[in-house]
Amino acid sequence: MRTVLKLPEFRRLFAGLVANLVADSVLVLALAIWVKDLTRSDGLAGVTLFAVAAPMALAPLVGWLVDRFPRRPFFAAVNVGAAAALLPLLLVGGAADVWVIYVVAGLYGLAGIAGNATLNALLREMLPAPLLVEANGAVQTVKQGLRMCGPLVGAGLYVAIGPWSLAVVAGTGFLVAAGAVATLPPARLRLYVPRQPLREELMAGYSHLIGRAALRRTVMGAAVAMLALGFGEALIFAYVDKGLRLTDPGFVGVLMAVQGVGGLLGGLTAPTVINRYGEIGGAALGLLLFVPATLALTVPVLPVGMVAVAVFGAGVPMAIVGITTLVQRFTPAWLLGRVTAVNDAMIMGPQAASIGIGAVLVSFVDYRVLYLGIALVVAVAGTYLWRGRRLSPPMSRLRPIDPPARPQAPAASRATAA
């Protein structure tokens, strides 16, 4: 991580990313709390999180837009747009205006998809391949570290100053991020986007993912694991209530903070693990850490639970850094926006669907039985990835793998993109 932070361009981008991630961490949970406060409904509060995830259906279109524009100004524009999308929150005055919060949550989710796709392409543009894992590790370290305090800060601002403070604080963070990226020097590379029928361009990200063995195996394994883990999102409440016999659901926030500590450590160690075992190997080990953590949650003992969520937290950035770096390494720069967006949708989409099913199942099935089932599925998915780790050998042992250069397009069909 020290190597990449020595680069002036990355330090400036990283400062903007920190501001973006702070805004992100204070916003989502507080929006759901706001809806709960206005409506007194847990279900309507949960719809807020669904609204954030719903734009995943537009991932191919979002990725296509990302690939049509220079990365640096587009990333700045996404952050400015995210800040502007928060302004309608200032008009919310009562339960009748909850729909405004849902719309803002949806726009925020859309900005998140575009921002992540652009960031992956921007890092690929700025950094040599061997430094990508360090950069991704640095981003995940900050993101996971903010899990320890960001949601609590957002909830505290909501209580102390009022819900409208969310728009001001988060909007400021997005604008700072936009300003940091806007001051970066122009890209040195001039890339073109081949002109194809619109349907082919929209499907290009999906075609690339399933056409490369390393990417196909990774997205399949990760999607199965996240599908299973989605069932467990609601189980943590049952673990606290029925397992630990704690009546205050707010204790879940304490466990999430402990998970953030584990995530911080995982983000710091992920580059070392991936440089040794490769991207698929690192992602597999991240998933396999979920297995003992999930099994430990069947034991209703608080110290055991604390260790379990910390181990779970350590696995999250390891898996994310491995998958993100693999996508960057095995995808040509001109296609990276579409591949990233579709990859996120294919992995996170099943999880979003399983969260709701898990919330229903926990009412009828013992949470410990569900945890055992989740551990079994994730163990299979993680082992499947581990067995395919040779598809992405560590770059320290092999020259960076990249698709062959595309032949130059005719002058009339060339366009510039970052």
TrEMBL record:
Protein name per UniProt: MFS transporter
InterPro entries in UniProt: MFS, MFS_trans_sf
Subcellular localization, as worded in the UniProt entry: Cell membrane
Pfam family, one: MFS_1
Membrane topology: Multi-pass membrane protein
PANTHER family the record matches: INTEGRAL MEMBRANE EFFLUX PROTEIN-RELATED, MAJOR FACILITATOR SUPERFAMILY ASSOCIATED DOMAIN-CONTAINING PROTEIN
Gene3D superfamilies linked: MFS general substrate transporter like domains
